[in-house]
């Protein structure tokens, strides 16, 4: 059974379209415990298999498979195929996506629960899966019916709140938020990189709503995001600032934090972070 400790304290988040075997091997060699596949990978989970085949021990997790994109039976069959060859190294992250992008997204909590019911019936148990979660009810469902939650685009105040909600539902559930990091020569350059990346996310109600509920004023989203908002969700511009951003989530109650390195040289940034975090390299 995959336990929270198997994820390691720090991981890496990267969109599926930007991942390949050399990237995964380098992330593993640097000592990160988990590689998260973002961007709603397809239900055949071919990218998961490719990355697992290319590495030796790192955990691969989807962050996330969109439940409206592929049915649970298809995804479960893909999971079983992969787990047979790489037992204990793949964790299936699922989520309900965004109302703005998915016309079918109605009653998302009930739909997630129904999806989990099918996964149960198909042999993908709670210890093999987790949920993308921002709101309280989804966080509680994640704790009750999976390893835990993988919040995306949050601040430490949300992590602190999520920890309390999840502990009330099931103490010890995994809480694994993502944190963006933009390393550059100066803060203005780092913020420009982060603003360009965050533009589409700041149009999505569930992300904006979660940030507002946890201390961000709505006015801070104007003009692509205030400096304070950008600095909070995309730590910059130095390695020390990136490390502080990751550790802030741990201090707030996270078990594991995944770093999403923004910019033209993500591996270079991840190498600098790994050195500063004193990760045990696998060379």
Automatic annotation (TrEMBL):
The uppermost taxa in this organism's lineage are: Bacteria, Bacillati, Actinomycetota, Actinomycetes, Micrococcales
**According to its record, what are the GO cellular component terms?**
cytosol
Which Gene3D superfamilies does this entry report, sorted A to Z? Luciferase-like domain
- Membrane spanning stretches: none
Protein's recorded name: LLM class F420-dependent oxidoreductase
Q: Name one GO molecular function term.
A: oxidoreductase activity, acting on paired donors, with incorporation or reduction of molecular oxygen
All copies of the Luciferase-like domain together span 23-106
Task: Identify the domain of life.
Answer: Bacteria
């Amino acid at each position: 059974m995959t336990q929270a400790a198997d994820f390691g304290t720090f991981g890496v988040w990267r969109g599926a379209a930007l991942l390949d075997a050399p990237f995964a091997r380098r992330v593993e060699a640097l000592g990160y415990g988990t590689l998260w596949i973002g961007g709603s990978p397809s239900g055949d989970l071919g990218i998961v298999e490719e990355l697992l085949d290319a590495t030796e021990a790192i955990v691969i997790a989807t962050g996330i498979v969109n439940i409206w994109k592929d049915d649970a039976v298809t995804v479960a069959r893909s999971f079983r195929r992969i787990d047979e060859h790489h037992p204990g190294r793949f964790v299936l992250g699922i989520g309900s996506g965004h109302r703005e992008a998915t016309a079918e997204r109605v009653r998302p909590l009930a739909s997630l629960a129904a999806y989990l019911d099918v996964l149960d019936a198909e042999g993908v148990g709670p210890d093999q899966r987790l949920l993308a979660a921002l709101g309280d009810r989804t966080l509680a469902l994640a704790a009750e019916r999976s390893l835990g939650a993988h919040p995306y685009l949050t601040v430490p105040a949300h992590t602190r709140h999520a920890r309390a909600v999840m502990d009330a539902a099931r103490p010890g559930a995994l809480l694994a938020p993502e944190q963006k990091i933009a390393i550059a020569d100066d803060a203005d350059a780092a913020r420009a990189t982060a603003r360009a990346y965050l533009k589409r996310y700041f149009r999505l109600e569930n992300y904006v709503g979660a940030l507002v509920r946890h201390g961000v004023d709505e006015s801070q989203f104007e003009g692509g995001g205030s400096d304070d908002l950008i600095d909070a969700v995309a730590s910059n511009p130095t390695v020390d600032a990136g490390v502080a951003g990751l550790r802030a989530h741990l201090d707030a109650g996270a078990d594991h934090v995944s770093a999403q390195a923004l910019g033209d040289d993500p591996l270079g940034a991840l190498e600098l972070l790994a050195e500063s975090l004193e990760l045990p390299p696998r060379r």
